[in-house]
Fold each of these.
Amino acid sequence: MATGRTHRPATRSRGIPEATVARLPLYLRALTALSERSVPTVSSEELAAAAGVNSAKLRKDFSYLGSYGTRGVGYDVEYLVYQISRELGLTQDWPVVIVGIGNLGAALANYGGFASRGFRVAALIDADPAMAGKPVAGIPVQHSDDLEKIIEDNGVSIGVIATPAGAAQPVCDRLVAAGVTSILNFAPTVLSVPDGVDVRKVDLSIELQILAFHEQRKAGEEAAAGSDGAGPAAARGVSGPASSSTSADQGPDGDVPAVMPA
Amino acid sequence: MATGRTHRPATRSRGIPEATVARLPLYLRALTALSERSVPTVSSEELAAAAGVNSAKLRKDFSYLGSYGTRGVGYDVEYLVYQISRELGLTQDWPVVIVGIGNLGAALANYGGFASRGFRVAALIDADPAMAGKPVAGIPVQHSDDLEKIIEDNGVSIGVIATPAGAAQPVCDRLVAAGVTSILNFAPTVLSVPDGVDVRKVDLSIELQILAFHEQRKAGEEAAAGSDGAGPAAARGVSGPASSSTSADQGPDGDVPAVMPA
DNA sequence: AGATGTGAACATGTTCACAGCA
DNA sequence: TGCTGTGAACATGTTCACATCT
């Protein structure tokens, strides 16, 4: 293996860093807002401010996509919207199923941000027979018995799990067996999936715990710092050093079921 | 500003890396599960598997907290639970307010994972007068007119924003003015906050967009790869390279309001 | 023996600072 | 002149491999 290359053969295309990919949706949103206000061009400085990052980072990020800006001028808003959308795969239609239609599942189904991108809620699935047929966000809930058929009929490759923790792994297994290869998991469980399946996890309580850590820290520093030094500095989107990102890897098991009662 | 040092003086205490802090809740959950099953000790290997990370990373993480393990044996479950809880600040009580009681806010209020840690939902706040007094998860919703008083009376320092995008910044400003110094933001907006206030953001549609990127990638590689190379490898919690983490920094504005209709 | 704890190598991500083009 | 695009310096995070202790 010699000196060590990346583990990913990198399909010869470009190798866009994960950190950059994670920010593309931020840029896209800021750009969409500008587009709606019919702003023709933006500088990296302006766009970075709108997206809450610094301009050097933004320019570096864009440099991985190619040279879509004009020196001395900035970026063409419409063109960039298109390029980023294409890069993210949002120019195609992504049918998505949401499994577990409790409060969270309903919130997701109602979430406008999905439809406005390339995502289409193809089906809502719940294990509770009483839910079957009931419309949520205008879409009738279907029973989980039909999960496999629904996946196949709609050509779904992305599934969202919003079930209680205990149901998550079985649901995940069925989704994967039916052909789903990307999963967004809201249940507080580590999901086991075969190679080639992507799992991303959003864990509400983990975020709070990270905040608590920093909060505790602040309380301790108050005593030590005293004068507070730096003064105002204030408010331009990005808060402090600590406002970084979210969790990593997968999440563990062993907690109260939580959302989606009945 | 001279040659440029770190922006953070680093309070001399310990400097636990952000990446490690973000994983502590994962370990804590896995440990809590073991504790409930009365398992007395775990090896780094076992615990890592349960948390969905690799053992080297786990050991390195724990090394920042101190030497809490026993060579040749492993870690004492109860002791570790206590140490991590303390480190995260979960041994104290954190009163939390949730602003915006739509589907998402209700899901959060019902989320068991909060109460089981040091978090206590001190109040639910909504701008809709029709919601006032209505109990959600056993807690009566209060009108946002009383936001400042509620914050002060309960000594709240952590606020959760689950309002539509348009309401997020004003709500944020009022929370901060009333003394909140940590905010968990579910609205798709970049929040401006003064220095010293932490903001973490969870954005549902961003996660989906990142999945879409990788999904698109897979489709492209299928053609190129063919043989698939590596074979099974399969399924032990952590999926592939791409299952990494979530978004970073803050999120931008300019999207459909989303959750919390009325 | 069997596990932790950790220095050192490696990989990824961020920021600086400026060359180069419009 | 004013902006992008990027090499190089720096910072953070991950993995390896083994010394170290029970």
Amino acid sequence: MSWSDGERYALERAGCAAGDNVRVPSTQRSSQSPSPARRREILETAARVFAEQGYNATTVRKIADEAGLLAGSLYYHFDSKESMLEEILSGFLDELWAGYDEVLAAQLDPKDTLAALVTESFREIDRHRDAVAIYQKEARQLAVQPRFAFLAESQRRFEQVWLETLERGVSAHAFRADLDLRLAYRFLRDTVWVAASWYRPGGGHSPEQIARQYLSMVLDGIAVPG
Amino acid sequence: MSWSDGERYALERAGCAAGDNVRVPSTQRSSQSPSPARRREILETAARVFAEQGYNATTVRKIADEAGLLAGSLYYHFDSKESMLEEILSGFLDELWAGYDEVLAAQLDPKDTLAALVTESFREIDRHRDAVAIYQKEARQLAVQPRFAFLAESQRRFEQVWLETLERGVSAHAFRADLDLRLAYRFLRDTVWVAASWYRPGGGHSPEQIARQYLSMVLDGIAVPG
Amino acid sequence: MSWSDGERYALERAGCAAGDNVRVPSTQRSSQSPSPARRREILETAARVFAEQGYNATTVRKIADEAGLLAGSLYYHFDSKESMLEEILSGFLDELWAGYDEVLAAQLDPKDTLAALVTESFREIDRHRDAVAIYQKEARQLAVQPRFAFLAESQRRFEQVWLETLERGVSAHAFRADLDLRLAYRFLRDTVWVAASWYRPGGGHSPEQIARQYLSMVLDGIAVPG
Amino acid sequence: MSWSDGERYALERAGCAAGDNVRVPSTQRSSQSPSPARRREILETAARVFAEQGYNATTVRKIADEAGLLAGSLYYHFDSKESMLEEILSGFLDELWAGYDEVLAAQLDPKDTLAALVTESFREIDRHRDAVAIYQKEARQLAVQPRFAFLAESQRRFEQVWLETLERGVSAHAFRADLDLRLAYRFLRDTVWVAASWYRPGGGHSPEQIARQYLSMVLDGIAVPG
DNA sequence: CATGAATGAGCCTTCATTCAT
DNA sequence: CATGAATGAAGGCTCATTCAT
């Protein structure tokens, strides 16, 4: 398998200019504007603990301990445990969609689009490992709550983007015609995102390297053999 | 892609004679001796709710409600919420290993072994959908507890079996030689098990059909072309 | 001043057959039906403590202590601290309106109606002293909450009943024509209900005796006529 | 009913020279020396919010918000939330007693004294509406605390003054001899002060007008004399 | 077998208060 | 004078678990 220009484009893309976001974050600094540094620090701590122990199993005390303050003090920065979760997830999704939108705007051919999306996904896993892990574990249950409706919306758009790409690929004879596309979509989606459960940033493989390997396995499976 | 004898063997296997279990369940009828029927009924209810809402988010009262008794009454049948979880997971793993062991005992060639393992996995997903979903979500955190050491042990053996199969396949020139085998292992493992998160028993596709599709995607990716 | 038949009717009325209630209590035993005895016991304790210390200043621990159980155990009987408050207040208002409705149904002349209403009020103070005290102190702030809308509704009907009685009395030349009726209404209303703040059941005066004295002052004044 | 000289005296009295205070306020400028203007502004805000929401239900942050500073900044001006309350209540009582003392010093006859006291009370309601409302709601619970002993002391003196006036009136055949004086005292006291719960300064009626109406009802009753 | 009632530990959250800047 | 950030003590509530009946 050799890399097309499109794939190269995707794999080399470095900057992440914000495209049109999927949603406007409802938590734009809950009315106050406390020091963003401390705030982000706490949020990253929360994300890590949520990812490690699960959202429900995580106590705010634990977060506070790890962040070096008392449980009550968290509430100076955040409205609630849930609002931390919301901010973590929406922050991740916003960036993800910024990346995806840029890929889509490039109007690559189906195979290159798929490669670029996969690569972008691994980049997001690299950048938001904790958020992705949380997302994997909690999204299904959260999505039914009005507050987390943006998760459901994101899932919907996600499916649409990937399915369209697959369909375009089938039409263009880039992907096998005998695929059950919904199954293939799930296969791809899970295959990529579950990686967050074992991926460790800075662990020998760059996101791009992993993406390349995954693509090699995945693509040569669903591509029309040549 | 055509099906080898080994694959056919795997796909047709119906019975599930218990092979040598990985572990002896410590919870064989927690000291009382209630009607096994009611007991299983409750356990299945618990599994369903655990799978739907997550173990932590599930209250013992919710289980009781769905099973048609009061929360306190559960403790006649089970020692604790945790012991229900343990029984659910160990029951699933015991059956899984019974299936795997039978496959391994057949000493098929690498490609057929892999096919048979994948097929067996989808059969277990079909039979223990809730348990698999719970396993996916909770195993990592549970495995560190002594009580759930059998999870870690199972994971270890799981990795060993799959890696060996892959290695044998590379040696036999059945699988591509340029694979990062650990990556390929994770890829396979996740790809198969995550299916539990969307699979619905009796939903148009039999486990064997899904297995075949997955194998088609996966195998033609990792198989040596040509 | 001598007592008319109507007043005598009011003062002698003993039984309290439930007329048409103002509202259906939304808290009809929150889905369970735990022993009504213990439930009422706790509720009376809560009412007493609320009346003594104020609703906000009362901790559920305090209620539990006084009722002889642990704080958490209250939640077996009640959904929340607020639901106890609701039940206390609605129970009182339901009985009050049962009494008022019976008085109104008797279609007495204005002066007798007023006397009967005042007497009935003192009877309710006697029976629901704590509830009345709570009502006095908290109603204004509670009434704006949807959950306690029945308070506002009751106040509205209350004002209507009393104002009508006063107006009929003025028309019938039973009450002075030079009164500011809204002022007189408030005067009467407060005068009667504030008594709950100092009234002690079984303290020498029966509700009927106190009602008689109050009526004497309200109707005829404290000054020596002439 | 016509107005005696004494009543006229009472109704026309405008100035409010401070007589001998009941107590020396312990909070005279809590150790700092901030601008008295800002201080009073904050105190009035606090009084308003206390009156609206109740002392316990009022957060120090709410006061700060309404006063246009941060919660912590209040502590530059005041020692504590409680000290604000104390200052509000003592300020009101000091002025009230200044007025009462002046009335008493005039040595009017019982009926005129009573009229003057009532009128003075309505004037205080007009001037210190919030403080009176707070007093009504919180005094009972506060009075037991050493810090608020001045409330109990004031109540004691209050009762003494009114009871004496009533007794003098009965002796002088100005008031009915068949009254239960303690009951009459409570009747009068409540009747007057509860008005604070609905009185709105600048709402059509001057304090003197309301006082006149109340006196008319209290002294002569609402019934047409027979 | 099941219920009703209670326990007690722990959770999220609130809030008066402090204090360095 | 005021702010930003934190403290620490409660407070309301949940929930797994127990146990007499």
